[in-house]
Amino acid sequence: MPWFIWLLAAGVLGVAEFFTLTLAFGLLAGAALVAAVVSGVGIGLLGQLVALGVAAVAGLVIVRPVALRHMTQAPLAREGSAALIGGRAEVMQEVTASHGLIRISGEEWSARALDESHVIPVGAMVDVMEIEGATAIVYPRELLP
Length: 145
What we know:
With 145 residues, the chain is α+β, with helices and mostly antiparallel strands. The protein is built from three helices and five strands, in the order αααβββββ.
């Protein structure tokens, strides 16, 4: 089979991948490219088919699961109020289970203590544990006696 037929097959599979986004057709297109190279070197049809099979199996069994796992992971960069979670803040107004005020990333946020028994004094450093609406739920960095 001439190398240009393999290239044509790779192109068709590439277009199919573009419309389906399954990663399967794209990996098969890569395998067809490998077969085109093998054909271009002058290896016969049996060698081309073996190269196609090995490249296809390697792509679908090894590469595809890894790629799918990376595609489903949450992005490393958080945006909006989610980016504040895990951040460090300074208490501007005493924080209790029901109210308080903190400064995080240069902004003032209403806050309340994660543990209802904590009263966090002004000037203390806290960790933002979660965000509920416009209120930061915080926990003191160091527990005071």
